[in-house]
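Example protein was shown:

_____
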Amino acid sequence: MEYVIFAAAMVVLLVIFTMKGFLDDRKGRQLFVKELQNHYGKLPEREYKPEMYEAIAKYYHKHQKDGQIDDITWNDLDMDQIFKIMNHTLSSAGAEYLYYTLRTPKVNKAEFARMEEQIVYFMEHEEERLTLQKLFMELGTMGKYSLYDYLDYLGNLGKRSNRKHHVANLCMLLAVLSCFIIPSYGMLVLIAVVIFNISTYLKDKKDIEPYIISLSYIMRLLQITDKLQKTKIEVIQEEQEKLIGYRKKFNQFTRNSFLVMADTSSNGNPFDVFFIYMKMIFHVDLIKFNQMLASVRNQEEEIDQMLTIVGYIETLISIGAFRASMQTYAIPEFIDENKIEAKQIYHPLITHPVKNDIVTERGVLLTGSNASGKSTFLKTIALNAILAQTIHCVLADKYVAPFFRIYSSMALRDDLTGGDSYYIVEIKALRRVLKAAKEQSDLPVLCFVDEVLRGTNTVERIAASMQILKSLAQDHVMCFAATHDIELTHLLEAYYDNYHFKEEIEDNDVLFSYKLLEGRSTTRNAIKLLGIMGYEETLINEAEKMATTFLTEGNWKVESSDIRKNNNDER
């Protein structure tokens, strides 16, 4: 009777623990859905370690082609930061494809029309969006490595054959039979074969364990594909059908995959212990692993296509969430003529941005003092041009322009590792822009240059800058350039529209409006700013006098006392 009561109690406890696990899982899913609902339309908050960017960029590096945003432009525009505020993805496939999307401008209006329909659908249909996001969460991330890294690593395993495992199993069968034929010797043979099989198993298992994670991610990819098949969402029907087509090629891959994917740890469950020892003796998981490995190697193209489709669908949702998090946004209008029209355009990384308007059919020269807004405006136009051709929205009330090839030369630094000075780095960056301008292409070039040739002396800078900017003033090139050299605004006024930013000095304080104004800058406040920052009045007055003399007479006058001081210093 005691045994019956004990057994009944164990059954009750098992039911309780099972129900608790079920309820906890259900509660966790409900909290996850609620969190998705509450965070939609808000900027994502997550930390990024440096090595994560390498994994996120892997899909892009595997699918590089002409016309993508190059590294210089990407870094100039702080596009890693833009990616971070746009990344609402929950899977590695989604994050990698979003990154690829931001670096791959499109030039097809029909492609954008379909993409726009899908983005709007998921913005307006919360239930379908949440259904997919739960699936993407199941797919999950790969940590600091991309699936493409793991697929590459699979090559390190070389050719693997199941022959030795089949031979081991044959020896096991013969050993068992020998126990019936010659029991005394047969048992010794059986023990020897078991020990041999276990020892060889442990060695092979150790070799393949690091690679099981890649097969596990592929399994999850196939599983959410199966679940996607059950969710009838018309707007992505084409993508779903393609996924199903690729999925059919992996039936052999998934059959008995539990042998490899099952957790090899044991919690003391007798069945688990028995299962582990059966695998060690008969190598069934090693045999299945080799079969799965061969399947992956034969179907890498299909895996890539499935990751592309899943990543694309999640990117659509992420773009919609980004739009919802912005103050305002507009759908770009693409035209054939070489013209940019932007109204109330702004930069998403600025908390309280000052919005600006511009209409131009040729290049633009920007002048103004430091910190007045020139560089930010260049980045604003460049960034929105990229967003228009990648995620099909701009942070503005209106944006009209053709499709462009986009380049920049802005936030450059000395190349300490390569031994190049700032000037060398700069002329290399400009050379690639000039090369793009000379290439035969159906797409015009849109380029951005901040302080042309700032790394050299004034005379040569103005002479060379004038010729470089003049060479970029072509029918199929639109160049936005910022400069402190007012001389360039006169030398190039036949080729460029002049705009400027202005600041006001009031009560020993500098006030910037950050509003774009037509025409060249006519104010000189750099020396006055020295006074505001506490420099001596004598220094300020002498500097003002020298600047005024140069502007009126065209040469620098040096006081005789300064000449005597220089001579004394030389002696």
About this structure: The CA atoms of residues 398 and 421 lie 40 Å apart.
